[in-house]
């Protein structure tokens, strides 16, 4: 249940970022270089996911495939499929956040007999 709400929050944040960037690019000066809002949103989401992965790694609980999802997302984004890349970035970020939660939950294990 928490995974769904976390996934919805990540996707909602990505959508809001895209909307904000689209509005900002419309209001910008025509002389400014054109930046693809989807690519900009992907870069921001990727940076956020990378930061979460580093936090998870510092706890010693980074999951095996998390960094691979981010690498795959970068490759797919370079091929031009930003939508699929955003899904992989969201998955990588979610796994990194869950790894941090796992580290916190298992920080002081107790024995129950």
Polypeptide structure, described:
The structure is a single chain. The protein has 113 residues and is mainly alpha-helical. The chain has one domain (2-105). It has helices spanning 2-27, 37-59, 66-79, 82-105. The chain is elongated and about 70 Å long.
Name some characteristics of this structure.
113 residues, mainly alpha, 4 helices, 77% helix
Number of domains: 1
Order of helices and strands: HHHH
Largest sheet features: none
Integer average pLDDT: 84
Separation, N- and C-terminal Cα atoms: 29 Å
- The Cα radius of gyration reads 17 Å
Q: pLDDT under 50 segments (min length 5)?
A: none
Strand content: under 5%
Give a quick rundown of the structure.
The chain has 113 residues and is mostly helical. The chain has helices at residues 2-27, 37-59, 66-79, 82-105. The protein is elongated.
Write the layout of secondary structure elements.
Blueprint (H helix, E strand, L loop, with lengths): L1 H26 L9 H23 L6 H14 L2 H24 L8
Helix pairs in contact: 1-2, 1-4, 2-3, 2-4, 3-4
């Amino acid at each position: 249940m928490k995974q769904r709400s976390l996934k919805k929050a990540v996707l909602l944040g990505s959508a809001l970022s895209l909307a904000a960037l689209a509005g900002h690019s419309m209001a910008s000066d025509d002389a400014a270089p054109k930046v693809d809002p989807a690519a900009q949103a992907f870069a921001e989401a990727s940076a956020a996911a990378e930061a979460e992965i580093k936090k998870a790694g510092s706890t010693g609980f980074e999951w095996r495939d998390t960094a691979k999802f981010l690498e795959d997302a970068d490759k797919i984004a370079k091929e031009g499929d930003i939508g699929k890349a955003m899904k992989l970035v969201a998955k990588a970020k979610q796994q990194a956040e869950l790894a941090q939660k796992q580290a916190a939950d298992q920080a002081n294990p107790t024995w129950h007999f």
